[in-house]
Amino acid sequence: MKLSLNDVAFEPTRRCNLVCHHCMRGPGQNMDMSPKFIDAFFERNDIEYINHICFSGGEPTLNPEIITYTIEKIINEKKAVGSVSTVTNGQIFSKEIVDAFNHFNQYRNRQSIDEIPKKYQACSEDTIRKLIKDNTDNHARITFSKDQYHKEVPSKIEELYLRESQGLKITSTPYLEQEKIYKTGNATFGRDFDYQLDQLRYYEEKDSYVVFDLLYLTASGYITTEGMGTYQDMDQINTGHVSNVTIPEILVDYGTPIFKTKKLTRDDIKR
Fold this sequence. Notes:
With 271 residues, the chain is an alpha/beta fold. It is 32% helix and 22% strand.
């Protein structure tokens, strides 16, 4: 069964170099994602397109190798991925991540230059040039956690990211309202939070199924539909391990069809 995914998150590591009192994850764990989980995610599912991949955490700069591995897999195997991003506390400069994101950005730029003239061949040359310009760069984003609960990002670190970036989008998180913090993990304040799996909305389009909501692959290899909560939450309540469950099976058990799409059954995904 062919799939298009809107939003995917990979958790490169559960290690962190800070202990933030608002962190929903709770105490860090000495755990890094294995490349075999990335392989299983792509190889056990017929994924035609992913709109966006976010590298979460933990602190992603503590395991740049898995990010580089994923980006190289996308490029070498010509996976159709629209954009990638990561959020860092900005205490470590990772040239490996910048290089990987630069490589991905260049890969997507080449795709835009090749594909847009073919897709819009009926348009004028001026329109095509504008479309290419609008779709060049900003395919990869690095965001600094600069809210009031994180340690200040050293200016020299931020300058290094800006200097080494080649068309990457460098952004920062805004001031974080207390009511937007979930009272879980390290946080003893904020709004109440009850971890539970969200339903995945999906619909059929031509010969593939489009998954509208987030799929989160943890460092321990479990897939969840809820990107919030502690590491213990995600390990105890999830849709199954990436080595044992496929996305179509997850849609059968945890999916909600929209746009008049028929509910998937086990018989449907066996065909």
